[in-house]
Amino acid sequence: MRILPSLVLTCTVISSQVFAWGQTGHRVTGEIAQAHLTEQAQQQVKAILGTETLAQASTWPDEMRSNPSEFWKKTASPWHYVTVPKGKEYKDVGAPDEGDAVSALENFREVLLSEDASLKEKQKALRFIVHIIGDLHQPLHAGNGTDRGGNDEKVEFFKEDTNLHRVWDSGLIDRQQLSFTEWAQWLGASITDIERKAWASNDPMVWVKESTAIRDQIYPKSDDISWDYSYENIPVVRARLKQGGIRIANYLNTIFEGSKVTQSKR
Questions:
Q1: What is the C-alpha separation between 165 and 176, in angstroms, rounded?
Q2: pTM of this prediction?
């Protein structure tokens, strides 16, 4: 069977891309967030996205990274992560000139609050906000600046060659063999009022600090990881997915609090 070179190239490009949490994880955070929106925020989200849910919106910025335009290949690429060297905090380093997830989040927040932004601009902003907050809760999207967020950390995960970043994006999650709705239903049901209050912060600095603390603990001692590594870290994955969902909702609830239903320019 002859395989077209262009098809090989396309598959190679797609397989090499880095997607935080993978589609399942992002959809879990979006689905949990949807359940915790205030009535006002629900109205605003519907006015902007129509029938599109936050779970659907959550994966759009990753899906668009296959778009060949310079915006998606270059401009928007740094908006999925932050870099915080070990022993530092984000406030010590800040965003680079090209921006990062924290600076992009603030910019998109301003778009949602703007009365002059078009509906298309607000749709992009809302989708990115849902996605970025999810990204910031994946520990390796707060990279240490030495290994591309664990992408250069080669491991065998259940005897399959991969890297640590991909293990955290999707490997740990997908091995549970649950749909995103099952994940969201089970995790959502376990969230307590005490946890919701404890996770109420809308400050990205808090989320990044949590992720860097976790990041520094999850590099394995061996490059051959399987059951023990999964057992130790699945509780962390569950906690970060729950926190990400709650914080997406809190962030949007705060933005839309007391605001009129958007009448964006078409």
A1: 17
A2: 0.90
